[in-house]
Amino acid sequence: MEGAWIGTSKIGKEFLINKMRTFIYSTAPMPAIAHAVPTSISIVKSMEKERVDLLQKASRFRVSIQTKNYPKTTSESQIVPVLFSSEKEVLDAAELCRKNGLYVKAIRPPTVNVPRLRISIHSDTTESILEKLISILPEF
């Protein structure tokens, strides 16, 4: 464990120091990690195009999944839920994905009210992978 960095208010800082002193002094990050943080923040700030591209890819996937009559969701992020009527259906769909080389997580009650596949689209997720996923998912 390399520890962590917390950005907080002065009151939050005082609270943490008073309540977590032994934890604070036992998990300090390595100096190299502490020095890498400003560079990491700078890189993340400069990646607006990548963020836009990722959200557009997720939006296209949401539109495509509608061709199979899956219920619409309010998701606007790169994590696209595909809703199912039963736990058996979502588990079968996840297994079908796995057999076709795609790791897609089935999320079931009580974690969520409605069973779903959680499709996590990444910047390196290709259109062909998304097309493959759409083609193997059963009609709803």
From TrEMBL:
Required cofactor(s): pyridoxal 5'-phosphate
SUPFAM superfamilies hit by this protein: PLP-dependent transferases
Span of domain Aminotransferase class I/classII large: 15-135
InterPro entries: Aminotransferase_I/II_large, AON_synthase_class-II, PyrdxlP-dep_Trfase, PyrdxlP-dep_Trfase_major, PyrdxlP-dep_Trfase_small
Keyword annotations: Pyridoxal phosphate, Transferase
Keyword field contains Transferase: yes
One example GO MF annotation: pyridoxal phosphate binding
A biological process term (GO) from this entry: biotin biosynthetic process
Transmembrane annotation, as ranges: none
Claim: Transferase is one of the keywords in the record: yes
Pfam family membership, one: Aminotran_1_2
PANTHER family assigned: 8-AMINO-7-OXONONANOATE SYNTHASE (PTHR13693:SF100), CLASS II AMINOTRANSFERASE/8-AMINO-7-OXONONANOATE SYNTHASE (PTHR13693)
Designated name of the protein: 8-amino-7-oxononanoate synthase family protein
